[in-house]
Q: What sequence folds into this?
């Protein structure tokens, strides 16, 4: 290494974890995940590579920490829960989570490239637990056990995260033909006699759509299903509090 | 798009139409079931494939600690299992979708005939 380079290197001990993660995020934004390496990162930070390894023992560890930070960033941007009906709040929060995930390209990029990033880790659990506590409050005016409310929220969370990932995947695979157009082209070749329903549909490309409208439709049906399956009251704020947590169930049919 | 897939889609859409939906409503319903299934499976498989039992156990320990200050969370039965996805949760969500569809389209009734039951069990979309 040249003397000039040595002279410009930052002082030992001046790095910190947050700065390293911010630099890694900047490199990924500029060069993609494949463009990130520990030596590149050290160079970007004007530090020795061993200094970076002191904080993160591997690129894998670095990426997971980055994903955790991005995940927490998503949650801190969600709107606070208000005192609306449980349906309004559930749809509002699920839609907001979807919107924030979609805006957080780093998290989605990491999750697709490294599925390990999707695993919730101890560092994010306190934030998620607090969020769950707040979300369970949404159901406090309806007669639903905390366990059932948690299952409902788990279904929604999986759906929202998975759908956002599907959308990113679909965008990445697009060239001049969208999946919807390709599907429509395939259907247009089919015999109306043998495929009457496909040929009768006015927007058959919607079969394979991963648009925001598709997201909203499925979310709406899930929430309608919650109301129907659990016979939940449609308005909050009138009944006695804390039904959630008493372990009561009103589900009509068992799974 | 293979003929097999197109045939499968046609049969699924036709099922909804026989149950009372228009072709366009059937497309919307099919897309909702398909979206839910693909999204759920995408997350579930990613986590299963890369899952780490040690992390789950650590999460449970952290969750138990923080739950001490969170009464609603503390009231959850089987707190340690709330991270789990799995077939049971998938089918639970699927049943919500069926119920939601029936609520929006009262003509549809789950369990009315063999084919409706096949929707409810996910046979038509998995």
A:
């Amino acid at each position: 290494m040249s003397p000039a380079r040595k002279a410009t290197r930052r002082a030992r001990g001046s790095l910190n974890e947050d700065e390293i993660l911010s630099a890694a995020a900047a490199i990924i934004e500029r060069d993609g995940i494949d463009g990130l390496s520990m030596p590149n990162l050290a160079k970007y930070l004007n530090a020795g590579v061993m200094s970076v390894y002191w904080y993160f023992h591997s690129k894998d560890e670095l990426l997971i920490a980055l994903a955790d930070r991005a995940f927490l960033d998503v949650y801190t941007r969600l709107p606070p829960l208000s005192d609306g009906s449980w349906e309004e709040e559930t749809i509002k929060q699920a839609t907001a989570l979807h919107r924030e995930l979609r805006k957080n390209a780093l998290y989605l990029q990491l999750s697709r490239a490294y599925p390990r990033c999707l695993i919730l880790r101890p560092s994010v659990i306190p934030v998620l637990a607090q969020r769950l506590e707040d979300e369970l409050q949404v159901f406090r005016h309806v007669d639903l056990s905390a366990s059932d409310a948690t299952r409902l929220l788990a279904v929604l969370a999986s759906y929202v995260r998975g759908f956002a990932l599907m959308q990113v995947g679909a965008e990445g695979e697009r060239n001049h033909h969208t999946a919807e157009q390709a599907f429509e082209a395939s259907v247009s070749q089919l015999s109306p006699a043998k495929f009457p329903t496909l040929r009768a549909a006015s927007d058959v490309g919607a079969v394979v759509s991963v648009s925001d409208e598709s997201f909203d439709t499925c979310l709406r049906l899930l929430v309608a299903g919650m109301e129907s399956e659990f016979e939940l009251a449609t308005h909050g704020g009138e009944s006695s509090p804390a039904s959630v947590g008493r372990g009561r169930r009103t589900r009509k049919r068992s799974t | 798009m293979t003929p097999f897939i197109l045939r499968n889609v046609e049969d699924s859409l036709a099922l909804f139409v026989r149950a009372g939906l228009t072709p366009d409503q059937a497309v919307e319903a099919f897309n909702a079931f398909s979206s839910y299934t693909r999204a759920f499976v995408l997350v579930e498989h990613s986590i299963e494939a890369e899952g780490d039992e040690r992390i789950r156990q650590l999460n449970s320990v952290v969750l138990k600690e923080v739950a001490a200050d969170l009464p609603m969370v503390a009231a959850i039965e089987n707190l340690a299992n709330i991270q789990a996805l799995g077939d049971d949760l998938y089918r639970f969500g699927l049943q919500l979708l069926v119920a939601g569809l029936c609520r929006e389209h009262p003509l549809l009734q789950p369990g009315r005939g063999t084919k409706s039951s096949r929707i409810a069990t996910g046979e038509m979309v998995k």
